[in-house]
Amino acid sequence: MTARAAPTARGSRWIRDWDPEDEEAWERGGQRIAHRNLALSVLSEHIGFSVWSLWSVLVLFMSPENGFTCGPGEKFLLMVVPTLVGSVLRLPYAYAVTRFGGRNWTVFSSALLLVPTASALYFVQRPGTPLWVFLLIGATAGVGGGTFASSMTNIAAFFPRPRQGWALGLNAGGGNLGVAVVQLVGLLVVSTAGSAHPSYVVAVYLPLIVLATLLAARWMDNVDAVRAEPGTQREALACADTWWISLLYIGTFGSFIGYGFAFGLVLQNQFGSTPLEAAGYTFLGPLLGSLSRPLGGWLADRFGGAEVTLWNFAGMGAGTVVLLEASRRGSFGLFLAGFTALFVLSGTGNGSTYKMIPAVFARRAENAVTSGEDAARAFAEARGLSGAVIAIAGAAGALGGVGVNLAFRTSYGGGSASGDPAFLAFLGYYAVCAAVTWAVYLRRGRRGTTAHTSLPQETTRA
User: Fold this and answer.
1) Residue partners of 305: CB distance under 8 A and separation at least 6
2) CB 294 within 8 A of CB 344
3) 462/350 Cα distance (integer angstroms)
4) Angle between helical axes of 131-141 and 114-123 (0-180°, round to 10)
5) Predicted confidence band at 230 (pLDDT cuts at 50, 70, 90)?
6) Which helix (H) or strand (E) holds 221?
7) pLDDT digits (tens, 9 = 90+) for 276-293
8) Distance between CA 409 and CA 119 in Å, rounded?
9) Average confidence (pLDDT) over 246-267
10) Is residue 327 part of a domain?
11) pLDDT at 52
């Protein structure tokens, strides 16, 4: 970052020659610019996650008493669609920032959130609306899920490496909290206005979207440092570690977002909870899962990403066994405790799995240097690959949420009051993830792949 670090053309808001590693320029004003963009990025991503998970709340209002005849299978489908669209959009959203600039894309993607919210506001109070209309509106809500990838890609370019972990952790955690907050809004509406007014939940977000869009347009910046080297994503796709880590992230983030969307509906089907009762519990799990994400990064810093991830999957397996036992006993309290543990562990696993990404590629860079490659080039390539894998794993992880909701749809869709088939499937997947973590990253002295290196600082708690 040179003397030109401050924007000179207010209309374009492009900052040229941005170099956050220049300590003098950072102290002279660069950190103020970075923190301003971070704050607005968190706001935009938070609202994006809330819109993405909006239908996890709206389906609680769609009861026969309010004129809706949707069965459990149709309601779970209404949560599958936005999850699927959001996961697919994560890769193009990450690329869009490198093409159009962080500020420009944030303005556009924030304004785009008006489409699913305005559409939901109009139709959600109309019981005779065909299911396909709700599915189409739910699909447009998927744009909220794409904001994670674009926001993380953008913010990483603003901060020097020693501060990137903190910045990305705050950015990701602030976004994840959107899942809990929209459910708190739903609880507030149900407890004060009753279960006949789902439009009130949607109406809360319309002015917030407008506000976030205007603030981004006025105060955010584009930086040229956000550009990626051509072919980096293709190289990452050809790397086996990309797919192993994506498989693990499906187990952690897929569980978090899938459970976050489905929890209220599961309580209704498993225990016959009313909308008020379901809404009273649904926010707690996503809230704890969001807050535990930085803990996973911190533990991975201390003990190693693969070690923490392995024990995390063991804990998630145990939590799933608790759910099966609670289902057998018909114990609501034990069921709630098991799900809460899964939310906390999925959040912790999000942090520890993301921690593995830069560590794995740092070790690859060290091996390349040992073989005679130039150190600066090797570690620069490792940083680029780490960023690409973060985007790919993020997209794959969101697809895990699709799998979770499809599993619940299969379990409850036939009128069954038990989610046991879904829980058994999750238990099997966690066992596979634990085996992969041990076999690929911990077996036969491979522990060094997640040891402390020069790169993990970059994406800790991302």
Assistant:
1) 352, 353, 355, 356, 359, 450, 456
2) no
3) 8
4) 150
5) low
6) none
7) 888 888 888 889 998 888
8) 25
9) 92
10) yes
11) 94
- Whole-number Å distance between alpha carbons of 267 and 285: 13
Nearest by Cα to 46 from 139, 135, 113: 113
Tokens describing residue 161:
């490496």
CA–chain centroid gap for 155, Å, is 15
Domain count, the chain: 1
Is 14 a member of any domain? no
Q: How far apart are the C-alpha atoms of 369 and 363, rounded to whole Å?
A: 10
Instruction: Note the maximum CA span of the chain.
Output: 71
Q: Which helix (H) or strand (E) holds 194?
A: none
H helices then E strands: how many in the chain? 18, 2
96 within some domain: yes
Note whether 312 and 352 are within 8 A (CB): yes
Those residues whose C-beta lies under 8 Å from the C-beta of residue 189, and which sit 6 or more positions away, are 197, 198, 200, 201
Residues 140, 90: Cα–Cα separation, whole Å: 14
Query: Do residues 288 and 343 lie in contact, with contact meaning Cβ atoms separated by under 8 Å?
Result: yes
Domain with residue 86: its CATH number is 1.20.1250.20
State the Cα–Cα distance between residues 277 and 336, nearest whole angstrom.
12
User: What is the residue range of 67's domain?
Assistant: 20-458
**DSSP assigned state of 231:** T
Backbone phi, psi, residue 195, to 5°:
-95, 10
For the record, the structure tokens of 295 come out as 């803990």
Please give the backbone phi and psi of residue 222, each rounded to the nearest 5 degrees, phi first.
-95, 140
Q: What is the rounded average pLDDT for all residues in the chain?
A: 85
Any residues with CB less than 8 A from the CB of 409 and at least 6 apart, and which?
72, 73, 76, 77, 80
Q: Is 275 left (phi over 0), alpha (psi -120 to 50) or beta?
A: alpha
Identify residue 265 by its one-letter amino acid code: L
Instruction: Give the count of alpha carbons within 13 A of 376, CB side only.
Output: 0
* pTM of the predicted model as reported, rounded to 2 decimal places: 0.82
Distance CA 429, CA 125 (A): 39
Rounded Cα distance, 269 and 350, in Å: 28
Q: How far apart are CA 276 and CA 188, in angstroms?
A: 9
The phi, psi pair for 70, rounded to 5°, reads -65, 130
Asked, for residue 430, whether it belongs to a domain, the answer is yes
